[in-house]
Structure formats: structure tokens, C-alpha cells
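Query structure, 69 C-alpha cells:
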């Protein structure tokens, strides 16, 4: 077990700095993905929501959020 290394401190250093354009595109991609999954959520019926442990109010609350949140 002495061979194991603590990588928790190095995790933040392993990713190189991203440019502003890369961060912007990444944020846009995440927003589009959120919008897509919310559209899928809107299509679920009561049984599907119950399987996920969500209520109709949970679904409405999630669908009211803008895509950037």
C-alpha cells in the first residue's frame, strides 16, 4: 500500500489553462445540453417521473430554469 500516491493536490494542476474561446464554447455546449435534457424531461409522463423519483412540480421547476443555469 505504500506505493499509492496522493493525487488530490495534483488534480487542479493537470488541466492546462483554457482560452476564453474554449471556455465560451464549453459553456455554450453545456447550455445546449441542459436545454436538450429539459426537453426530454418535458416528454416524460407521470410513471416515468415516479421511476426517477421526481414529481410534476419538480419537472416544472426544472423546466422554468433558463438554459444557462
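Result returned for the query:
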Amino acid at each position: 500500500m505504500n506505493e499509492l500516491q496522493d493525487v488530490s493536490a495534483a488534480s487542479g494542476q493537470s488541466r492546462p489553462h483554457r482560452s476564453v474561446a474554449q471556455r465560451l464554447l464549453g459553456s455554450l455546449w453545456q447550455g445546449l445540453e441542459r436545454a436538450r435534457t429539459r426537453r426530454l424531461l418535458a416528454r416524460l409522463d407521470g410513471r416515468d417521473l415516479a421511476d426517477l423519483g421526481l414529481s410534476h412540480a419538480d419537472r416544472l421547476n426544472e423546466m422554468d430554469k433558463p438554459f444557462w443555469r
